[in-house]
Amino acid sequence: MARFDIDPARINFTIVRRGKEYNLRVLQRASTIFSNLLNLLPSSWLSAIQGPNYTLELKAVAVELAKVELSLEDIFHDTDFNKTRPEFLYSLIGYMIFLNGKLPPLQFDSEEFRSFLLAVLRCLLQGAVPESIEAAVDLLYDKDFDVFEAFILTRLGANGFDISDQFGFDVAIFAGDSFPENMFNVEQSLRLILNIIRPAHTLFKIRYIFTDMFDSSGIVDAVRWKLACYYYDDVRRYWSGVRDRDRLGVKVNQSVSDEDHSDEF
Fold first, then answer.
1. Cα separation, 66 vs 77, whole angstroms
2. CB within 10 Å: which end of the chain, N or C, has fewer?
3. Per-residue pLDDT tens for 167-196?
């Protein structure tokens, strides 16, 4: 292979400098360097065999130069984020993106982590705009969502907002009838990403909107009623009324002539 070209048959791209594949690469590169070194010698030094000491010394130099060249090629390829070796993904990309050395608490293999970092980098370079925030949410959630900006809702006449909400936005996740998978770790990861993408003067809230399942198949449209009558014994005194008074309690005029009340004294 030519120098600084990636071998399509190469499998191991880690920093481990051992193994059958690595030794074969060193041998192939050392053979080329050794031939070039021999060609630099005058004709009086050339030998048909590799027995003389100078050929052994040149071979040793060729092996070390081959190792240096292979290392430099790997370092050169690390500058392309699509080809960065897994051991340097965070030190080259993640450290540049995330704040205070914090990484999202999610599980990735090397290629998934590379894709995730590059996606976050694209969101970051897109700028602190609603589109980049939506792209960040879409990166972590496979459910429907919406991003609401408070000042726009206020213009539309939404209630419950005042001037203190003008620099805020809400991320609404439509969760359906179940909690999102790995909910807490995913939300923590989203907060880490939004903190590096959002405008510095804004605040945000993450909400989950659940939908209750309602089954109307067992409902029968009908009207029912129940009548009851309650009786009790009236034990009050004078329930038939008061003597000499009508039912409305008005006194009835009575003649008092020829009445003898002497026995009442």
1. 17
2. C
3. 888 888 888 778 888 888 888 888 888 888
Instruction: Judge whether residue 35 has pLDDT over 80.
Output: yes
Does 131 have pLDDT greater than 80?
Answer: yes
CA distance 106 to 98: 14
For residue 171, give Cα distances in angstroms to 63, 122, 147, 175, 207: 58, 20, 5, 12, 6
Rounded to the nearest 5°, which phi and psi values hold at 56? -65, -40
pLDDT tens, position by position, 146-158: 888 888 877 777 6
Query: Would you say the pTM of this structure is higher than 0.70?
Result: no
CB within 8 A of 96, min separation 6: which ones?
none
User: What is the dihedral sign for C-alpha 75, 80, 83, 84?
Assistant: positive
Domain extent listing, the chain: 20-77, 86-210
Find out whether 152 and 165 touch, Cβ atoms under 8 Å.
no
